[in-house]
Amino acid sequence: MMKTIEDIKQYKNQSAPLVCLTAYTARIAQILDRHCDLLLVGDTMGMILYGMDNTRGVTLDMMINHGKAVVRGAQNTCVIIDMPFGTYEHSPDQALKNAQMVMDETGANGVKLEGGADFAATIERLVSHGIPVVAHIGLLPQSVEDASGFKVQGKTDNDQQQLLKDAKSLEEAGASAIVIEATIDSVSALITRAVSIPTIGIGASAACDGQILVTEDMLGITGDHVPKFVKQYAHVSEDIEKAVALYADEVRTRTFPGEANLYKKKAS
Ligand code: KIV
What we know:
Elements: H1 5-9, E1 18-22, H2 26-33, E2 38-41, H3 45-48, H4 60-73, E3 78-82, H5 92-106, E4 110-114, H6 120-128, E5 133-138, H7 157-173, E6 177-181, H8 185-194, E7 199-202, E8 210-213, H9 215-219, H10 236-252
Helix pairs in contact: 2-4, 4-5, 5-6, 6-7, 7-8
Bound molecules: 3-methyl-2-oxobutanoic acid (KIV).
């Protein structure tokens, strides 16, 4: 049975943390589904699948189409869909209209949006209309225009206090969980202790209630720059490279297709 956001909330302070990854396609969702608790249809899709420089060019239609695919592939996991840049920041009304569309069209379990205390009213509005919301603090990729903006957060006492305030106000607003991205370990651990909803770390702390990575990063499918917080569990780009080189060679030498790959007329 598909995990709901209520199941995800039970992961607060558990010995076994929440296992989360991103997914953008049905087939990847099917594979991850056997091992994960939560799949995020993240707007990192813009950079990973569409070759964009940042996540700002991602549209609601893209999120909805990929969201539908992931929901089709996921049998057990809770599926959360990112609200893309420009679709929720203007007003709680704008956020509600667009989040409702994402929920209705995809059948996902909830949405995620980036931002601190400034978005408490927006989250309150979505939650009061039955839309579960995962918040996202620390490094906010939608606020960053190029790679130079990807900076670790929470380095000063002021930053730490602000992040703590943000987390508490998002919890009060009704967020179901909080993603903490690229934030000093001790600050992420402090936030985790301070709120009663699960925190999901990405470059945050082992003390978080769960962990998430971009699937292509941990599989080794992305480019040369690998952030420090990513552990690569495979080197799939290298496997693809080898396979494609072998295929090209076999086509050129007429080794492929071989007898096993051809349809033959049965002798009558
Ligand atoms: O868009 C995304 O993939 C995300 C993760 C990095 C948490 O927000």
